[in-house]
From TrEMBL:
This is Uncharacterized protein.
Length: 97
């Protein structure tokens, strides 16, 4: 498919800042893995993915549940860090507390 925009329009589009912060924040996830378990959460810490390798399936249920909770907490911190980098674009550098 050929892009029919003019060179001027392409340059203008390239210089226009990405201001879809809502969409960018909605797409933020964090992931943490250990001992055959991978947990993915959204920006709010809600699990959106959980993967178990064969290694994890040999664990006791209580150990596995504790690991999932620990990984979810770690993944939430990762997601919040990513979300913070998105929000940093909203606040002028001198106005951050």
């Amino acid at each position: 498919m050929i892009d029919e925009r003019s060179v001027e329009q392409l340059l203008e589009d390239a210089e226009t800042p990405d201001t879809d912060y809502r969409g960018r924040l909605a797409a933020v996830t964090g992931e943490a893995s250990s001992d055959g378990v991978t947990v993915t959460v959204d920006l709010y810490g809600k699990p959106v993915g959980l993967r178990f390798d064969r290694l994890a399936l040999t664990s006791r249920a209580s150990d596995l549940s504790a690991l999932v909770l620990r990984l979810a907490a770690t993944a939430t911190v990762v997601a919040l860090d990513v979300g913070e980098s998105v929000v940093d674009g909203l606040v002028p550098p001198g106005r951050r507390s």
